[in-house]
Amino acid sequence: MMKTDVIIIGGGSTGCGIARDLAIRGISHCLIEKGDFASGATGACHGLLHSGGRYAVNDPEAAAECISENMILRKIGQKCVERTDGLFVRLPGDSKNFRDKFLKSCEAIGIETDILSPSRAIDLVPTLNPSIEEAIKVPDCSIDPFRLCMLNITTSKNRGGRILIHHRVTEIVREHGECVGVKVREELTGREMEIQGKLVINATGAWGDRTASMAGGSVPMTLSKGSLVVTNHRLTNMVINRLRPSSDGDIIVPNEAVCLAGTTSMSVDDPDTIDVESHEVDLVATEAEQMIPSFASTRIIRTYAGVRPLLKADTSDGRAISRGFKIIDHGNGMFSIMGGKLTTYRLMAEKMCDKVVEVFGLKKRCRTAEIPLEGQEQLSGYPLSKRLKELKDIVCECELVTRDAVERAVNDVGARHIGDIQHRTRLGMGPCQGGFCTYRALGIMQESGRMTPEESKRILKTFLQRRFKGIRPALWGDQLREEQLVESIYLGILGMEGRE
Amino acid sequence: MSGTYDVVIIGGGMSGLMAAIPLAEKGRSVAVISKGDPVCCLSTGCVDLCSKGDDPIGGIESFPDHHPYRLVGVEKVKESFDIFQKIMIETGLPYIGDCHANRKILTPFGTSKTTCLVPKTMKSASCDPDEYIHVISFNGLKDFYPSYITSGHVNSGCSIFDAGVSSTSAIAERFEEEDFLQEFVSWLANLALPEGKIAFPAVLGIRSAMAIFNAITEYLGRDIFEIPTIPPSIPGERLFSSLKNLFLEKGGSLYWGKEIASVEKLNGRIEAVTLSNRGRSTRVQGTLFILATGSFVSGGLYASMDDVRETVFNLETYLPGERENWFNEDFFIPGHTIEKAGIRVDSTLRPLDSEFSNLFVCGSILAFTEVMKYGCGHGTAIATGVAAANICEELL
């Protein structure tokens, strides 16, 4: 039986951040994740490293956390943060009063702002609506949440942390009411295992209440679905926000070769059954078009939705609930950490680990803000010019992923799922959304002997169905053309028609 | 360059060329306008008539009345397939099969695809589960993984050749070199493979495919066949360029890489179209016009968020309901409602509710074609293309 000090349940940014923090403090731990890293809200967000501007007026506390974490992450995570800066644009009719409050709040919190005339703003982002009244520049950044999680995990692994992905916790084991370990099942093989630990940390986001209930606890939460759309190219090199109280579809974030626009906010009950609806896509597209008119004629290549695990509040309006976070001591050896944001993941981990050392009676301070994320040396970083140098045998044309990169992911990580490769190489995240390259990646995986051809066929089928579900609400224009082509390839040329 | 023609055909894909060739053969002056290589180049190069069931021509008897096959008539569909096969013999790229029996061909995924007519290089591509197949692949070829085939085929083997290049087009181009072909054939012979068929990804040459295929067959003295790969597809490209070249040989005129900028109308007729060009404009005048621009993928139709538009003449289109219902939820069950979208025509292929009396429509832009649902890709193009040619011929 595996023994460890701390069991972390959940491989989102919070769980991964806690693993890194504990590793640096020298505390043994084991992280358990039922899917892959970042498969909940972490991987389904905007990828926006907030300056705090978005929350400055209504949630100054969360905004202050954002700006200080923003400054830390751009320093320690150079290869997963792109320093884009952001604009808050005010359109004709948007409240001048809110704009004044915004500037005042930013100043009070310490978020640096710069007021730009329309012509200066358009100089920076030529696609902006020419009729904007003004724009306010803030230090927003774009962040790759998958890469962020992997890098946090690298530190944990380097220092002896045990990481079990694709493992589901089936039971939290208790003795005399105290949590003493967990039983887990490997999703692929069904193999069961028990892990002993002194503390259990529940970092399962939207699944938090469910996890807590396994140990007799509960976590009051409000689940809020947010839907986003992905465009086929970068419409802007800066983050674009609408200068008005938070609302639907008011943020556009550049992310590598694409842009992400969203979101909506709808309260939901079950985080496992969320779908993007056509009217949400229409809403996001219509709103984004206000800020960047060419959005209307831009191809939307995919839609996706995530569930924000918000702290329970009296209001039912998801947008009005604080983005702050909270640590709940269940009094039985289990802690739940809930709420918060991707931007503040490190701070959340710090506070959680402070609690851990307090419980263990240790004196080990947090150093995660000082040490750069380990493993970045091997990453290419963002400039395309660097990546172009090593290009040979391109497997994914949209994201310029080479056969080498796929083989490395297969050999180093032992990738057994297409997501393992996607999240590590960005394969399939560009305009064709894996239409061509997934077939190739799976071909390479089975040739490596990591899986049988039959397994890879099954994975391809699952992938194609999931991909289709994400694209279906946004099928018109050029994306519809692409989809019909993909259909003719898999059903027509490869003969994959019909149910299993 | 400007010109005046008996028939002006907009669209240089399967349906456009299948209308153009018979007209040119009869001595009519014909122009084909195309904005680029057609969707045919992305296809397997095989012709599906009706892939649901064993008897394709029998299968279409039960199609709905408004399906293009039914508008043309079953007998005419049969005739058009004969014409296609004759044409292909003339191009030097013969097609095998007949319209009373479907055949199965092996796919790169190890599954089998049902189709009707295949290029001769795929003649032996139907495989019994226990006959021996040896699959040849090429080093680094990213669109072909032989183990997908060999894992499902008990009796099989695989060998890999290093062609020095790794894309389907580049390998096909190498086969056009005499020395390369020699080297490849001796390598094959030295493998001393067990009795049985040899399968290749479809890369055995582009322009000289039949000669290369015959040479390898003869040298090895056994059945070989090609497996069509994902786009860019060499058999699709061969089919298209053979038809295009035959059309030129028969005196047809091609306006390639050109889009239509404006349409001249006169007394309820299309008088001429003007092609967009840098600098000078080109005017193409015609007595009759055929619209063969294809469906969404080729750009004949364009779907906006809530409507479907015909892109050249802005013809009335049939729209199958709201966007929410355009696609079913299951990716693997073909027959999405959006496939019904297109131009509705009468039995003479004239668009309904159209202001133009000299315009005819053929190919997958026609409403209710539903290529994926019925498995009738290229089949409807051939049937309606030939029909459009006949209708025009009668009127001229």
Provide an overview of this structure.
The complex is a heterodimer of chains A (500) and B (396). Chain A folds into three domains: 2-41 and 146-220 and 322-360, FAD/NAD(P)-binding domain (3-Layer(bba) Sandwich); 81-142 and 222-311, D-Amino Acid Oxidase, subunit A, domain 2 (D-Amino Acid Oxidase, Chain A, domain 2), CATH 3.30.9; 383-493, no CATH class. Chain A contains 14 helices and 24 strands. Chain A has helices at residues 13-25, 60-76, 96-109, 118-124, 145-158, 208-213, 278-291, 345-360, 384-389, 403-413, 418-425, 437-447, 453-471, 477-493, and strands at 2-3, 6-9, 29-32, 48-49, 81-82, 86-90, 114-116, 134-138, 141-143, 162-164, 167-175, 178-186, 192-196, 199-202, 221-231, 239-242, 251-255, 258-262, 266-267, 300-311, 325-329, 334-339, 394-396, 401-402. In chain A, the strands form five sheets. In chain A, strands 6, 7, 8, 15, 16, 17, 18, 19 and 20 form a nine-stranded mixed sheet that branches. In chain A, strands 10-3-2-14-22-21 form a six-stranded mixed sheet. A four-stranded mixed sheet of chain A has the order 1-13-12-11, with no helix packed on it. Chain A is globular, with a radius of gyration of 22 Å. Chain B folds into two domains: 3-96 and 239-395, FAD/NAD(P)-binding domain, CATH 3.50.50; 125-222. Chain B has eleven helices and 17 strands. In chain B, strand 12 and strand 13 form a beta hairpin. The model of chain B has no long low-confidence stretch (mean pLDDT 94). Chains A and B meet through helix 7, helix 12, helix 13 and helix 14 of A and loops of B.
